[in-house]
Amino acid sequence: MTPQRRLRRHAPGKAVLVFSFLGGYCAGQAAAALRRARAVHRATRAFDGRRIVHSASDAILSIDEHAVILLANPAAAQMFATSVAAMQGSSLARFIQPPSRGAMAPCDYFPTGGGRAGRRATDYAVTGIRANGQLFPIEGSISTVDHDGHEVCTVILRDVSERHLVQQKLARSHDQLRQLSSALQTIREEERTHIARELHDDLGQLLASLRMDLTLLQSNKLPEASQRLIEGMETNLLMAIASLRRIATNLRPRALDEGGLYFALQGLRDDFSERHGIACTLLAEESELRLDDAASTAIFRIVQEALTNIARHAGATRVVLNLDRVNHELLLTIRDDGRGIRSEDMEKKESLGLVGMRERVWAMHGEITISSDETPGTRIDIALPLSGHIMGEEMAN
């Protein structure tokens, strides 16, 4: 009984050894298979990465910490009119213009703060250098990674020469339109001045002469029917004279030529209040508004257009005009207590009055802000540079 028991006791031990061997062998095979799979995955990933960089339409450069190009794709070689072999191993200064002579590291070519407004902080605008020495604008982004303890920068670049040409054409066209608008405003103002003077000097004198003749006729004894006819003629004549003065003043107020901007604004304020029943307060000093004809006319027309818009659309009961001259700048503020103006209303094509105001302000290189922050009502803030427009300075010069 003892040997059998001993035999039964040792039999399970052999089975354990066999299964342990098989388990270890299988685990080794599985680990080897896993290593082979990872190696294949890394090779595939590296191959995919190279293929992506090689086929990218944007220029891609890898640069070491000494601003030496480690890698360049065909798109980069095409952008700089050279070959990939010529770029790799070359200094970055051969292809991107350094901002200063002391530029050594990649961050010197892409300094902090070189990002464009409205873009990511990693976006930069630099100047490229083609193989023939031609300079051209480039925009792109830069990122930095650590590779084996060394800093490597990857730069993605885009040639924006065509975009810059389009922007320059648009800017020239915009400037030409501004000049045309300014010229049209000047011509229009000259025509208004000419017509107003013709009306006042010629037609006004003729009507005044007719009134004097009627006055002489009334001094004589005439039949009652003739007397009534003359009185009716005088009434009509007075209405014609009043209409003539109003038309001439709308075209070009005589106070602007005879008294200056301050008195012209006073007349505009009184006429506005009388015609529309809206209280209007003028806060200004005559000594601060002694300006030349160009500035006086522009400011008068800006205020006139603002008051016209208020009368038509604001539904206001009170308007305040405030003009302050600070050094060589005029600060003009127009406030009303009406319904206010919405941002979409300012962008309407029909808002020609606001467009005219902006054009006059921009023609004087000024700034204009229209807001409805104050409830209720609208506020217009205008800052106009007056250098060369102040009467005392003009005479001194």
What's the quick description here?
With 397 residues, the protein is of the alpha+beta class. It has 12 helices and 10 strands. Helix 5 (161-219) packs antiparallel against helix 6.
Q: What gap, in angstroms, lies between the N and C termini?
A: 136 Å
Structural class: alpha+beta
Task: Please list the strands of the largest sheet in the order they lie side by side.
Answer: 2-1-5-4-3
Principal-axes shape call: elongated
Low-confidence blocks of residues: 1-11, 14-26, 43-47, 115-121
The largest sheet, given as strand count, sense and whether it forms a barrel, is:
5 strands, antiparallel
Tell me the helix content. 55-70%
- SSE order, as H and E? HEEHHHEEEHHHHEHEEHHEEH
- The number of helical runs is 12
According to DSSP, the number of beta strands is 10
Question: How would you sum up this structure, described in words?
Answer:
Helix 5 (161-219) packs antiparallel against helix 6, helix 8 (261-276) packs parallel to helix 9 (293-314) and helix 9 packs antiparallel against helix 11 (352-363). The protein is 55% helix and 19% strand. A hairpin with a 2-residue loop joins strand 4 and strand 5. The strands form two sheets. A five-stranded antiparallel β-sheet has the order 2-1-5-4-3. A five-stranded mixed β-sheet has the order 6-7-8-10-9, covered by helices on one side. Mean pLDDT is 76; it is low at 1-11, 14-26, 43-47 and 115-121. The protein has 397 residues and is an alpha+beta fold.
